[in-house]
């Protein structure tokens, strides 16, 4: 009988310790951000009263359809995220838990992160302009492109900015629109020589695109697996590796040609 009592006491003590550890884990802040589908913006249109893309030094054309850049929205870098928040995000389809360093790679204070994201956006816009003008054979010394998109940071809109500049100036090169009148969304960084790079949060960006009326989504080819896993119904996924490939894919969609797929 005493042995049974000792065993019961040991088990009770262990259960108490486990409960205490779980309580501490639930209350302890984690180095994680909760992300959800963010805003999208038509780069062919206006944002807060300003055209997103303004071109001077060469004629521009009237466009139809939309080219929507996509974003994710995340908890602030100084916000406390706990285990219950992560568990809710794990089982939800409209949110995700991501390492804070992946969402805010610059680290530092809130102000430093905002400055880092703003600089990345500026660098991305410069690269997007360079890639578009190079494709069009236009000199940046003669053609000036101004990009305006408030309250958005980071480099992931580069591809859509390049496509928007090309559509504004040249369209499909035959008098038509790159979009074929559709709402095309996408994501991807871009270099000045037109290479498209990976970004984060693609499944959530797809949801944002679908929510805002897109029927086609351009995604960096290296992220096909994540993009395909949770693709919303009615959204066509098109992988790209560079600007020329994105333009070719859009042309194929408009003419009924062969379109790459994940």
UniProtKB/TrEMBL annotation:
The keyword Protease applies. Residues 153-236 form the Lon proteolytic domain. Pfam families: Lon_C. Residues 1-25 form the signal peptide. InterPro entries: Lon_proteolytic, Ribosomal_Su5_D2-typ_SF, Ribsml_uS5_D2-typ_fold_subgr. GO terms for biological process: proteolysis. Keywords: Hydrolase, Protease, Signal. Its EC number is 3.4.21.-. It is an enzyme of class 3 (hydrolase). GO terms for molecular function: peptidase activity. This is S16 family serine protease. It comes from Streptomyces fildesensis. The lineage of its organism: Bacteria, Bacillati, Actinomycetota, Actinomycetes, Kitasatosporales.
């Amino acid at each position: 009988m005493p042995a049974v009592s000792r065993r019961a006491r040991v088990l009770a003590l262990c259960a108490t310790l486990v409960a205490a550890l779980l309580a501490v884990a639930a209350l302890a802040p984690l180095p994680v951000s909760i992300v959800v589908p963010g805003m999208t913006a038509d780069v062919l249109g206006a944002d807060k009263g300003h055209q997103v893309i303004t071109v001077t030094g060469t004629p521009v054309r009237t466009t139809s359809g939309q080219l929507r850049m996509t974003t994710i929205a995340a908890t602030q870098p100084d916000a406390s995220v706990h285990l219950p928040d992560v568990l809710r995000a794990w089982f939800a389809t409209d949110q995700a838990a991501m390492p804070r360093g992946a969402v805010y790679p610059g680290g530092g204070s809130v102000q430093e992160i905002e400055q880092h994201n703003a600089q990345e956006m500026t660098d991305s816009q410069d690269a997007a302009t360079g890639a578009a003008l190079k494709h069009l054979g236009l000199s940046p010394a003669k053609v000036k492109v101004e990009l305006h998109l408030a309250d958005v940071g980071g480099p992931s809109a580069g591809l859509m900015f390049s496509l928007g500049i090309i559509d504004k100036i040249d369209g499909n090169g035959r008098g038509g629109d790159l979009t074929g009148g559709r709402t095309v969304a996408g994501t991807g960084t871009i270099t000045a020589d037109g290479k498209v790079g990976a970004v984060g949060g693609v499944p959530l960006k797809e949801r944002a695109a679908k929510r805002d009326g897109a029927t086609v989504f351009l995604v960096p080819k290296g992220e096909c697996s994540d993009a395909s896993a949770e693709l919303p119904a009615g959204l066509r996924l098109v992988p790209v590796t560079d600007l020329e490939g994105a333009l070719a894919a859009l042309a194929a969609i408009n003419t009924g040609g062969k379109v790459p797929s994940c």
